[in-house]
Amino acid sequence: MSPYQNLEEYNIEITNEVKERFAGIIDEIGEDVSREGLTKTPERAAKAMLFLTQGYKQDAVEILQGAMFKEDYDDMVIIKDIEVYSLCEHHMLPFFGKAHVAYIPNGYIVGLSKIPRVVDVFARRLQVQERLTHDILECINNTLRPKGVAVVIEAAHMCMMMRGVQKQNSVTTTSGFRGQFEKIETREEFLKLISSKLS
Ligand SMILES: Nc1nc2c(ncn2[C@@H]2O[C@H](COP(=O)(O)OP(=O)(O)OP(=O)(O)O)[C@@H](O)[C@H]2O)c(=O)[nH]1
Ligand SMILES: [Zn+2]
Hints:
By secondary structure, the chain is α+β, with helices and mostly antiparallel strands. The protein folds into two domains: about 10-50, GTP cyclohydrolase I, N-terminal domain (GTP Cyclohydrolase I, Chain A, domain 1), CATH 1.10.286; about 60-195, GTP Cyclohydrolase I, domain 2. The protein has helices spanning about 10-30, 40-50, 60-65, 115-125, 130-145, 160, 185-195; strands spanning about 70, 75-90, 95-105, 110, 125, 150-155, 170-180. The strands form two sheets. The chain has a five-stranded mixed β-sheet with strand order 5-2-3-6-7. The longest helix has 17 residues, at about 10-30. It is elongated, with a radius of gyration of 20 Å. The two termini are about 35 Å apart. Guanosine-5'-triphosphate (GTP) binds near residues 88, 128, 159, 164 and 165.
């Protein structure tokens, strides 16, 4: 099986189990799960939840290892504005925003699409933004073994917007730097390039 394929065919037993739990929740909040608009909702919700957490079944290392190419290029490679959708592990509500990832090759480059795929593998789990940032950083660092790697994530958390503190405009930024990005000049170049509209 491909290490990153979508779970288009859901495990029937697990889907049914999750479906029953959602039916229970709908009942507990005082709704009628048998009314027309809701009859298929437990199944839809189960499939949505399994899709949003499919990263547990995917292997980010395998994804990277499947597309590493020997190349002498040793300047910075930046993939910026990667959409991120994840679920906070405290409330299981979405947090979403953008990831910016850069690395400096060390004999190998990686297929560009694999970086957003790695972001998705870790985002489609129950997460906190800090751990998501480090999961991506360490996976690239340990697998590609580049001269440096940097990850910045900017995200809004629905648990701070729809409920709780109810702040609509706050954005959380997390970052991690390894290798050459620990040097201030390299880090500044990266931060300048991700804030530029043209890069
Ligand atoms: N550090 C961090 N905190 C997060 C993340 N997502 C959600 N949280 C926070 O997790 C915390 C959980 O705090 P609790 O006091 O246990 O939960 P709560 O009573 O629902 O808190 P409020 O959201 O303040 O109402 C909250 O402050 C959330 O804002 C994240 O990705 N990183
Ligand atoms: Zn939350």
